[in-house]
Fold Peptidyl-prolyl cis-trans isomerase.
Amino acid sequence: MTKEQERARARRRHEEQQKTAKPPVGDATRDKQVFGVILAVILVIAAVIAVPKIVGSSDTPSAASTAPATQPTDGATTSSGGLAAGQKLAAGCTAPPALQAKPKQQTTVPSKATAAGKTFVATVKTTCGDLVLELDGAKAPQTVASFLNLAKTGYWAPSPCHRLTTEGIYVLQCGDPTGTGQGDPGYGFGIENAPKDGRYPRGVLAMARTQDPNSNGGQFFITYKETQLPTDGGGYTIFGKVTKGLDIVDKIAAGGLVAAGEPTPVNPISILSVTVTEKKA
């Protein structure tokens, strides 16, 4: 091959390489590409930040226990009286009155000497009829003394029975003028006459309390079926029994609850007044 032919072949190879080779990237072009990448990243980050959270709070209300010693639960009676959502009147009942604007408060626990060794009869006038209770001052003198005091001062006039339990534990709880389950008369006292086996027969009148054994105050409950309650912490004071009107409690219980897991009875009942007399032998 002549030198002229070699030069011609070399020239053709060079031309072919030039056709397939990528053009070099200039500084300006490179800067544009880098800027484009950065801008894209910024836009993605901004979009993520701008998206609203759709996952709700992980905080959920603690489940309410069914025992009368549970943490307070909201009642349903409205501050202006009448029926709350989901409630209706049972036969023979009238609409609940408005809650007390300012429930009476005291600071001194009444002397148990006023009730010790005595038996009393309490008539509880309600929006669904009268409940008659027999109070045992011999077995629960402090509790009965407190009940006498609160009745005399009109502490419960009026107040709703804010809590009903219908599964496992069968009680109607009353005695809080605020209707929230958090009210107390301003004092507290300890447990008396609590059954060691935790058995509460139908028609028993007992004190409700928190986990504090000295938190007995103004709230009490009536068992409309035999109920087994925990004995941890000392149990619950039995201080009497229903002698008349338990059919009224049965009627309220039969109406059930406004919502599952909630304490509000479908059929409301409120205390209007309480009068107490000593039972003579």
